[in-house]
Fold these 4 entries.
Entry 1:
Amino acid sequence: MNFVRVFFLGLLISFMGSLPLGTLNIAAMQIAIGQGIRSAMLFSLGSLLAEMVYVRLSLVAMDWVRRQKLLLRLLDWLTLLIVTALALSSFYTAAQSEPAPNPLLGLSLPKVTLGFIMSALNPVQIPFWFGWSAVLFSRNVLLPIKSQYYFYILGIGCGTFLGNCIFIFGGQYVASRIENNQQMLNWIIGGVFTFTALLQLYKIIRKKDTIQQIEEKVTRS
């Protein structure tokens, strides 16, 4: 029964964590609007695979990850660059007279690969899963047993996918409701990406980056 418990805990935590507006779920929504549900699903699959890798690392190599300060800082800056590029691409798409896909999200990469790369370069999830995994370990809900890890990680993947589906199908619904005004939606999405980029820059400047967040999560747990 404990395997079922950790599966559903992973699913619930991941699902709830996927609901706030973020780079990956908004990107999935924009792909669904511009390139179809199948492409968005493949993108989400790639992103959740990278997330599952991060969770696996957080379970078995917490100390090693915490020591990679240069790498984590580099990922913070790469995240800022990617989100800024997504914002500019969204504004560029919105400014076109004819509907067009976001240039960055329309790269000629398999959508699974694109989702994996964007998720791997997004360090926001690292402190999130460090914190939750540490809490579950401290309460003996999650035990250092490989079989439990697999159920926990599988639950996380399912939760992330379900959360992204809300944005994918929600984006399609919104797009169908505003049929001839997808440009407005692209302006809104560009605004969301701009806000996310500014928030990421603020965190870096205020030293609330990934390294600091990990240290805070570990201390609290």
Entry 2:
Amino acid sequence: MKNEAHFSIDYKWIMLALIWLLYFASFMIFSCIPPLVTPIAHDLALTYSQIGSILGTVMLAYIPFAIPVGLLIDRVGTRRTILAGAALVSLSGLLQSFSTNFETLFLYVFIFGLGMQFISVGSPKIVASWFSGKERGVASGIYITGASIGGSTALAITNTLIMPLVGTWRNTLSLYGAFGFAIAFVWLLLGRDKMHAQTGGAASGALLEAITKLVRDKYVWIVVIIGFSTAFFAGHGFGRWLPKLLELKGMTSAEAGFLASVPGWSGLIGSVVLPGLRKAGSRKPIVFATLLIQGICILITGIAVGLPLTVSLVFYGISSAAVAPLLIVILMDLPQVGPKYMGAAAGILFSLGGVGGFIGPFMVGFLIDLTESILPSIIVLTIAVETMLIFTLLMKEKP
């Protein structure tokens, strides 16, 4: 018994490292397409609207499946479900390299979305099960840095290092997919479910009853709405198009990819530091401040050049990276959620967020085709973020 307690205390950090690695590998695959938009669009004869659809396809998969995935994770546990997700994500990277037209690339990116939701919905479940109190905020911030570092690394090296090394965008995608499989194998060896975690004990009817209860809770909905507009609609609409936005300002693909990686690096500050600054019940002021800064920086990035552009990207990264872990921690601290139903709650968040995550990138591409300018979409994204300041004031935390 004594050894078991010691094991669980130590092993939570190994589990945190594992989900960090999964996020790192997954977001390398996720983020390598934006810097490759130009050669992919040329080879497959894609319009901006079609590109926008592909960039948002990942989140489209969350809409019908995130809630069932959340229920499955609460029933089965995280080890097997996250392994399945990691395998699908990696398979997607390999399949994308064989794309021949819009339809096949759309399908293969959709497969990534199917797999990624097991990781993104399951990770909060791991944090809620293995950590407690203020450590939850710290742990949530830490594993999210895997996404920031993985995505930023892919943006920075895809056109400057990987493409010149392997020759084509197809070989680039294959290489990222192979790396994903290597990390999935590490999870297979070391990943495990929490001993005595609140997993698998509830019947299907009880889980569905919990879903119904969560859906009727207005404070859960406030968190979901804020996440929909900021982390998903604006976050994916802005982030997925950022390399192309910078190219439209006259930069080369290598320069645009490198500068587009800046928010990911600066986001390490926001995702690690900000969620752990305040204890449960007092995070609302940080959410308000980060959303205010995020919206301002989106607008400045759309109209500025030179040093102001770089500075806005730095502060955008700090503010936007803090939003998702803050909202997730606030959600898991609600007494009606907790570790037991965190999978289901995260499923609701990501299912509705998936709508925003698809519409955001598609909207940007559609407006570029319609107006031949990216500025109108920048204005829409800014308004979407700043409107959420009102909902932040309505948010009620429950320690």
Entry 3:
Amino acid sequence: MNFDIQKIYENAIDFIFLYGPKMIGAIIVWIIGLWVIRIAGRGVDLIFNRSKLEVSLKTFLHSLFSMVLKVLLAISVLGMLGIEMTSFIAILGAAGLAFGMAMSGTLQNFAGGVMLLIFKPIKVGDLIDSQGHTGVVKEIQIFATILLTPDHKTVILPNGAVANNEITNYATEGTIRVDLEFGIGYAASIDKAKEVLSQIMKAHPLVLDSPDSFVGVVGLGDSSVNLAVRPYTQPKNYWEVYFDIYEQGKKALDQAGIEIPFPQRVIHTVNT
């Protein structure tokens, strides 16, 4: 019994002398490493703040940066304790590869989100057309862009598809042209119709003075002379101007006695 106790004591002493310094060193490295990671994280935050990145991207990149450094620190500490890390790193790499293949679509959306948030081809509040949907950008997240359509439907677009395909941004220049078309009868005065429609655009509070609004003949239809009406406004006011000018233009043309004809045909009969 005494022999067993003595043996255990000797083994404990040997373990302490063999692994004690390594454990103490590993603990010190772990503590200092966490402190360095915190300092590095603050430095990264300062860089992100100066670069004016989106809040969601800054938060994600900060977490990713901190997690990678902590994993590297843990591997270093375990190596100091004498644990063989080669096999562990190989397993970790294989698991990462398998995870990446399984999550390829999600990773593509993440990469697209990073591109959108860094290069900013669109931003919150812009009126855009993407993937067959037109709407105002409500939010740009890491994996998806959220649009609010004119009929107040929420459309969630994967960032991978948005970043890798065409985007029409109507808000880049700060103004947008509203394309409208009115048809008047062939007997009506074109000059008078142009004057009436020009006055409607000039009086509308949301139509911009510059660029100048325009009214001109765009085509000759079967039953009407077609006028192109082109006011300019801010992108956020597009649909309000669109509907207002159509409604107010129709009323003004009616009051001016200018006919907006419906489709009609003239039939000639020949007596034989």
Entry 4:
Amino acid sequence: MRQNPSNSESSEREEKSKSQGSQTLQRGLDLLDQVVDGPIRLADLSGRMGLTRSTTHRLANALVERGFLIFLPREGYQLGPKLLQLGFLAQSQTDVVRIARPHLEALATASEDVVHLGRLDGDQALYLDKIPGRRRVEVSSRVGDRQPVSSTGLGKALLIDEPEHVWQRHFKAEQAASNPKVDYALWLDRMRSYAITGRAFDLEENEDQIRCVAAPIRDASGAIVAAISLSSAAQYMDDDRMAALSDDVRATAQHISSDLGWVPGANPPRRPLRR
């Protein structure tokens, strides 16, 4: 079958655009490599890159606008605050997983239930670690999975310091994307109680017949940087057991927080609630 000339030209343009985009990205990354050792002037940067001054200037300025580079008069370009931020976040995330692991294993052993570690990733909860339980309970989650925050215990624990308008935004966006499972007024009342008690529940909201107890992890500043959750089948997680497990889950989260430099009383003040 002969391809329509207009379709063929469109495909060629699309492929050319993708190729140019990939080349630009590669050049941007190569440029960052050239700035690793300290400030470098445009002329020297252009020479190292094998590009014209105008092309190099355009690439460098784009990286300056995004915060990956900064420009120092009479010195040249050097690495910017965005890279420092990303490096810090990458390091802190690695540290959280490493520091939390023995505490998660101890909690999973004592409870015989599944334990998760996660953090906020954009508008979702990202699972960073998972310790399987000893019960014959299948919890459909994997490290790297992203889950809604308004219906998971871990996600709610990550949100408890946020003002109510942020809670509402997450709830409405996520409920609109699926069949609503809980009334907003009821959900909001529960969130308010979670913020007071320092732990959150998943009452079969995210997955049928699965319940969990979760609590936030804080860094030295008192900010929530991650959360843990303990999950099991509803038959093993009646209201009384969830209440009893709340102390264990909170204590585990606080031990991890202490290892990250948090001390009791360092919680940042909650922002004003907006209705």
